[in-house]
Protein 1
Amino acid sequence: MFTCQTESSPPAAQPGGASPFLEEKAFRARMVLVFGTVTDTLASETVRKLLALDAESSAPITMIVSSPGGHLESGDAIHDVVRFVSSPVNMVGTGWVGSAATHLYLGAPRERRFCLPQTRFLIHQPSGGAGGPASDIAIQAREIIKARERIAQVIARETGQPLDRVMQDIERDLWMPAEEAVSYGLVSRIIQRREELAAA
């Protein structure tokens, strides 16, 4: 399992921290909140909500994302299910959308990717720790290289940037404020009010 987050990332949010009443209100409004470190638990909860909302109606779902990143494979699960469901999903970035969170954010088509004015985005290559016999370390190194290439291909496909540029950009942390994220192709447009999603 590869980690995609900054070294200064806060610990994962504890399940059950949100008010059940508020969670229910958000769910009824067809909103899915993705806050905190991307983990298997967060991915499982998010995927269940997406599938339940999709089964209930084909109306758009709004996913609000503020996350430093986390486990790449957990981000993969959310990214793929966003593309799997029939209901269109509007992605709204706020706070920071980093690493594996940027990956899941890119699950929505570009015209449905939005952010609030103060949002910052981060792209970079995955990292992972390897221990044990040299043969196991070599296997892990090869898998990290494959994951890096896969992430770069997704970013290039979803932003329209040349693959070689993306490969260079993710060599180090690349932070982008909202305006730069729009220019790069991560974001369709910056919004300030919920009503602006109605045109999506």
Protein 2
Amino acid sequence: MTPDDEHYIGYTITDVARLMRTVFERRVRSVGLTRSQWLVIARVHRHPGLSQSEVADLLEIEKASAGRLIDRMEAKGWLQRVADGSDRRVNRLHLTAAADRLHAAVWPLAEATIDEALSDLSPDERRRLTRLMTRVKSKLQALAERDPAGGVTQADLDDGELSEEDREAQAL
């Protein structure tokens, strides 16, 4: 049985996340900021001193890609690298004053995007949605920590013996 796109929660969650990104990206395009750059600014604002590797993990990108992103942001005057006192190989990232100002200007746009997206929900529905999504996030974090890296193998696909559950999981 193929899930109905309009009612399948996996598709809905993916579509909501994609549309949130799209709306936000359009709103900040005029200041020359990409979503990836915003994520770095927002994360380093909340957690000053993140390493390049930690940023790569947070953005789910390769370390080399994170390095190039950080290089561009450093060239724009938004980030500075500070050598880690205990490990010469690690640089800690800190926002510059320009990035702090950018964060202060863009954060209200990020909040407004969320507020507008949720405007049809009552305050109680918003709290409930937040609680439920937090529970799902916690469960997924636990699964990510204990599940092996693999799941469906090429052999499963070649055999054509993929279970209905595996096919639905792939659709996510």
Protein 3
Amino acid sequence: MARLREVFEDAGFEDVRTHLQSGNVLLSSKTKPEQTARKCELLIQGEFGLEIDVVVRTPADLARVVKLNPLGKVATDPKRYQVSFLAGELPAASRRKLEEAVEAPEQLVVSGREIYGWHPKGVARSKLWGRLAGRGLGVTATARNWTTVTKLLELADAG
């Protein structure tokens, strides 16, 4: 993660910070989120030889995600509550497949470019989690558990 920070700083991004070892990067950019995502993807590919899809959210976007928290009253374990961040709108066919994969007591809420998933029995045997974590959504996506989402907002606000 230290080298990743260096690469982004050398490319002109400011306030570059990382969180955990899973590709969470906070930075300041003067470009639009979509342009920032593409630039980050090219930097990662050029420096590390990896084709990684990047999804960008602004601090305001993260604040909206946390404020909405549609499953907050039922999601009692933040490690089993996840948010999938999408680069665009979820295709209707993908939404239907996700809804079909929900097995009680799991819950799912699609809201704009985010999908909230509650997996009270864990993710190991969850068909829903497998579909949320995979590339089969028809749109670029990345998922984080609620603990990470709220920590990223805290770090973004402190930046």
Protein 4
Amino acid sequence: MSREMTLSQAVIGSSSTARKVMMVLAGSAFIAVAAQISVPMLPVPMTLQTLAILMVGFAYGSRLGAATLLVYLAEGAMGLPVFANGMNGLAFAGPTAGFLLGFVAMAWAAGFAAERGLARGVVGTALSALLISAALYVPGVAWPALIAGGFGTEAGWVAQDAGFYWTWFVAPFLLGDAVKAAIAALLVAGGWKALSR
């Protein structure tokens, strides 16, 4: 399958290194702000962090999207309060560390879908976003279930049964993921439609 132009390439053309650096910094700031926005929803409030990650990936492409997330994680590791609820690098030792690391793959996958032309229309983008969001649960659950204990982490969320992780790490967030997939699809498709005009 041939490589398609991404939304950012369509808007600003091929970028110089300086422009790419600015895009990465702007993208990481966008994700940091979105991570602090919590929308009341049942069963749990929905942050806009993963929506922002999907948007960065769909707009930037695989490599620039992944680079943006690596910078975002580095900002958190340096102590900046860029993660959800104002958390910083301490989150790498907590129950959500697997999700944080999975964010890089999430942005890369969204960018890959965009580059392959799978994320232009509403349906293709929504399906891509849903599949990518579902894949994020693999590292998200693997960390507390299988990996954290090996690093000597002792907490109530380490090495529990599958039902525990379904109840606390997956099920409460599925509706939010579906909503964010729909929003991402509408934004991406709307961006392409605006450009075609």
